[in-house]
Automatic annotation (TrEMBL):
Highest taxon above the source species: Bacteria
Full protein name: NYN domain-containing protein
Keywords, alphabetical: Membrane, Transmembrane, Transmembrane helix
Keyword Transmembrane helix: yes
Length: 341
């Protein structure tokens, strides 16, 4: 793994501070009437599924400005290890609230789409996007790009909060127990999605009307995308089992070029964590859409992505604890830093 990543506790708070300051400054700009407000009402083909989509800059932008600029100060304080007692608790609550809001509550399915179809998007960047779209900009337009920026800010805040106060109540033995249950939940949650999409591909209108299935059949590639998602989900479940299996810690014999060597923890933790955090906002977006009894198969399985993402995140965290990631040096408190020798 890159050497800089091994020292994330030392830079996470400062990175969150820089991100917050920049986005807070943008909030000031938009509050004063600047253009490009990323949640302004736009045409449907340029809108996102965020909970803030269609909001007014005069209402939301000032909140962004205050949260960003205050967040920059708090993040620096966390990076420096300042705060005791109640002040420390307040900063932790603020940090985790920022992380959850930016990474989980505000985004939509854009991040899941980006992760799932990243190879295709790379190809489309050179070959053009098939269908009525004029180019990659018709897929990754500003309202969606902004959600990616917010998501990255949420990740930085989560890292800053972890570096400021990393859990000490866990042990590798305990993490193995609750991590195994998290793996079971993470593998069970997407089963309804997998079953419905495979059923649709083979002509069974499970959870949808017949005419909806006919429409998908007449749309080139639509059923294939669903089938691909189901197969990818099943493959992800197999890999998830590696978080509690021996082959997830030591390369098995079928990985002949690395057989017997230890698997770097980051190789499992980073991808699992990324998938976990992009699943949650996509699941919440499905929850906000509600349920139509006649077509429950469209988004009810997607609602369980929230459970899937949370369970996968817990499983990845348990794996990290078992593999010794909690021993990474934490940020020293300023009161503990003495003069150099």
């Amino acid at each position: 793994m890159l050497r800089w990543w091994r020292h994330w506790p030392t830079w996470a708070g400062y990175a969150a501070a820089v991100w917050s300051a920049v986005y807070g400054a943008l909030g000031v700009f938009w509050a004063l009437g600047g253009g490009g407000f990323p949640f302004a009402p736009v045409a449907g083909d340029r809108a996102s599924g965020s909970i803030l989509e269609g909001s007014r800059a005069g209402v939301v932008a000032p909140v962004m400005a205050v949260a960003g600029l205050v967040g920059a100060v708090v993040a620096v304080a966390m990076a420096r290890g300042w705060g005791r007692g109640r002040a420390r608790t307040v900063m932790l609550v603020f940090g985790w609230t920022m992380a959850a809001t930016l990474a989980l509550a505000i985004p939509d399915y854009t991040l899941l789409m980006l992760v799932a179809f990243a190879p295709l998007l790379l190809v489309f960047a050179f070959t053009g996007v098939p269908g009525p779209q004029d180019g990659i900009g018709d897929i990754l337009y500003w309202h969606r790009v902004n959600l990616i920026i917010l998501f990255l800010g949420g990740l930085l805040w989560a890292l800053a909060a972890l570096a400021y106060h990393r859990p000490r109540w866990t042990t590798p033995e305990a993490a193995r127990r609750w991590g195994r249950w998290a793996v079971y939940v993470a593998c069970a949650a997407p089963v309804p999605y997998e079953i419905t999409r495979i059923a649709w591909y083979f002509g069974v209108p499970l959870g949808i009307p017949e005419d909806f299935l006919l429409m998908m059949r007449q749309t080139p590639g639509m059923l294939e995308v669903g089938l691909g998602g189901a197969i990818g989900s099943i493959g992800g479940c197999v890999l998830t089992h590696g978080l509690v299996s021996r082959w997830g810690e030591v390369y098995p014999r079928w990985v002949w070029f690395r057989a017997g060597e230890r698997v770097p923890p980051a190789l499992a933790v980073v991808p699992a964590s990324v998938v976990a955090v992009v699943l949650v906002p996509a699941g919440l977006m499905n929850v906000r859409l509600g349920v139509d009894p006649a077509s429950w198969g469209v988004n009810v399985p997607g609602m369980l992505w929230t459970v899937w993402g949370l369970a996968l995140g817990v499983a990845a965290w348990a794996y990290a604890l078992r593999r010794g990631w909690r021993s990474v040096t934490t940020v020293p408190r300023m009161s503990q830093v003495g003069p150099s020798a």
